[in-house]
UniProtKB/TrEMBL annotation:
GO BP annotations listed: fatty acid elongation
PROSITE patterns attached to this UniProt entry: ADH_SHORT
Molecular function terms, GO-annotated: oxidoreductase activity, acting on the CH-OH group of donors, NAD or NADP as acceptor
tRNA processing keyword on record: no
Protein family: Belongs to the short-chain dehydrogenases/reductases (SDR) family.
Statement: the UniProt record of this protein carries the keyword Signal: no
Pfam families: adh_short_C2 (PF13561)
Annotated InterPro entries: KR_dom, NAD(P)-bd_dom_sf, Sc_DH/Rdtase_CS, SDR_fam
Superkingdom in the source lineage: Bacteria
Keywords attached to this entry: Oxidoreductase
Organism: Sinomonas humi
Protein name as it appears in the record: 3-oxoacyl-ACP synthase
Residue span, Ketoreductase domain: 9-192
């Protein structure tokens, strides 16, 4: 019988109180990891950690990823409660959709700060710890929007495209230190947010997917598991599209 893929590993996941981040935490714990659930809503992070199994396998930490100090504190908590971080998943994100004509400077800055600066904070600080401890893996959450650009998302598309460039540059910097950096680009994934779309918008998006269905959060989590584990040991600087074939 094979051992769990992440046995003995400590993973830090941002934006993990719900949605894709929570699904990744579930999948990692099922494969032997101990997880720090980071979220800007500290109460929600604590509740999510409790649902995931409590103190033995998960701890919730309030973290605003735009603050390097808060990200550093979250990583220090991981080391104190479990061990130094082996897997970092930069998943936290927000949307502030509007057409370019109507989008405010504040809406643009908020999305860039959370997605792009937040991912840079997590990548930079986690890589610094990993290089001193024999290596590790970093997974950054991009989006199909960062590949194709979506109307009403000049801020989000720019941030998600930036995450791809950031991941590739970082991967080149730290590969010789045993740190791998990869990115995931999800397409339409079923969630409370996407299911609240107007029916005509949902139908339009569905018509663009060759597989004929939306993705499920666990289907993103399984790809994150692959990138976190030794199954992807010779992969760095890659971008994996998980889209059902949409805009391939």
């Amino acid at each position: 019988m094979t051992e769990p893929l992440l046995k003995g590993k400590t993973a830090v996941i941002t934006g993990a109180a719900q949605g894709i981040g929570y699904a990744i935490a579930q999948r990692f714990i099922a494969e032997g990891a101990r997880v720090v659930v980071g979220d800007v809503n500290g109460e929600a992070a604590a509740e999510a950690a409790a649902r995931l199994g409590g103190d033995e396998v998960a701890v919730g930490v309030r973290c605003n990823v735009t603050s390097a100090d808060e990200v550093q504190s979250m990583l220090e908590t991981a080391a104190q409660v479990f061990s130094h971080v082996n897997v970092m998943v930069n998943n936290a994100g927000i949307t502030r959709d509007a057409t370019m004509r109507k989008m405010t400077e504040e809406q643009f800055d908020q999305v860039i700060d959370v997605h792009l600066k937040g991912t840079w904070n997590g990548t930079r600080l986690a890589a610094g710890i990993m290089r001193e401890n024999g290596g590790g893996t970093i997974i950054n959450m991009s989006s199909l929007s960062g590949k194709i650009g979506l109307a009403g998302q000049t801020n989000y598309s720019a941030a998600k495209a930036g995450i791809v460039g950031l991941s590739k540059a970082a991967a080149k910097e730290v590969a010789h230190l045993g740190v791998r950096v990869n990115a995931i680009q999800p397409g339409l994934v079923r969630s409370a947010m996407t299911e609240a779309m107007p029916q005509n918008v949902w139908d339009q998006k569905m018509s663009e997917i060759p597989m004929g269905r939306a993705g499920e959060v666990d289907e993103i989590a399984k790809v994150a598991l692959f990138l976190a584990s030794d199954l992807s040991s010779y992969m760095t600087g890659t971008v994996l599209e998980v889209t059902g074939g949409r805009f391939m």
